[in-house]
Design goal:
This protein has 293 residues and is of the alpha/beta class. It has 13 helices and seven strands.
Length: 293
């Protein structure tokens, strides 16, 4: 079947999780099975594997790839609510993976509204069932609200956040992502990344409640790990990575009461070859921990 998404840090994930035949696997952000497929090819344990995604497009792809009764269980929920469900059902796993990045199809399909390089609707929803979209943020939120999210979630300087917010308020309404990106870019200083990158990141984080979901999910994950089970998490910007780093540190520093044991003392990043073949991996960071035996 056609590969729709080039998974980041795949060789590193395989090396750190070290999947073995018969082991159980939970993928909390399965997407287009970029990581799940090679892991399941090793474990061959489909009945004890669960693939989660909040994106209906990803779920449809997974349903076509793994017909009912022949593959892993598929769960169409955000990862936080999926974790609550699995805990309630008493499930545990030998390996858990969460890749918090936006998938290539989400970025490449203009009608999803994630990309600032093509004209698409102001959407950015990972779950198309929710009503809240980027259009509400861009066209209806006040100046102060925009400045706040650009500083907090876009990691912009105060001055740049204020400038971008004022440009948006002055020139709205916006009807598509390209209009928004071009307005943000006007008058911005030249940079190696597009001036709209951080603004789009901030809006996407708000629309999908990304950081709050991560923060609520992390403390629950040890309850889904078997003794000796491994947990791998991939992040794509410093806000996500900071949450994971701080949680791993806290959960592994309680002495005999520690829920986790750190496997990676510092994050693993993409090598030169991967960066050539997949530039989107440049900001990816992998952290891994394990539950004590």
């Amino acid at each position: 079947m056609e590969t729709l998404h080039n998974p980041v840090l795949l060789s590193e994930v395989m090396a750190q999780l070290q999947p073995k035949a018969g082991e159980s696997y939970l993928d909390l952000t399965a997407g287009y099975a970029g990581h799940a497929q090679p892991i399941l090819a090793v474990t061959r344990n489909y009945k004890d594997a669960v693939l989660v995604d909040r994106d209906e497009y990803a779920i449809r792809f997974l349903e076509s790839k793994y017909p009912m009764g022949e593959g892993p269980k598929l769960v169409h929920r955000d990862f936080y609510n999926a974790v609550l469900l699995l805990i309630e059902c008493g499930k545990t796993f030998d390996m858990i993976l969460a890749d918090f990045g936006v998938s290539s199809p989400q970025l490449d399909q203009a009608d999803r509204g994630f990309s600032f390089r093509e004209a698409g609707p102001l959407d950015m929803r990972m779950d198309r069932k929710q009503e809240f979209t980027a259009d509400v943020v861009v066209n209806k939120w006040g100046l102060g609200q925009l400045i706040e999210i650009f500083e907090k979630y876009g990691e912009m300087s105060s001055g740049f956040a204020r400038k971008v917010a004022r440009e948006i308020v002055t020139h709205r309404p916006f009807h598509n992502t390209l209009e928004l990106a071009e307005t943000i870019a006007k008058g911005s200083r030249h940079s190696r990344i597009h001036p709209a990158t951080k603004a789009f990141q901030a809006i996407r984080v708000v629309v999908n409640d990304e950081l709050a979901l991560i923060e609520k999910t992390l403390p629950l994950l040890p309850r889904l790990l078997n003794p000796g089970g491994r947990l791998a998490i991939i992040t794509f910007h410093s806000l996500e990575d900071r949450l994971v780093k701080n949680y791993f540190k806290e959960a592994s520093s309680r002495g005999f009461e520690s829920e986790l044991r750190l496997i990676t003392k510092s994050p693993i990043t993409a090598g030169k070859m991967e960066l050539v073949n997949n530039p989107r991996a440049r900001s990816a960071k992998l952290r891994v921990a394990a539950r004590g035996c």
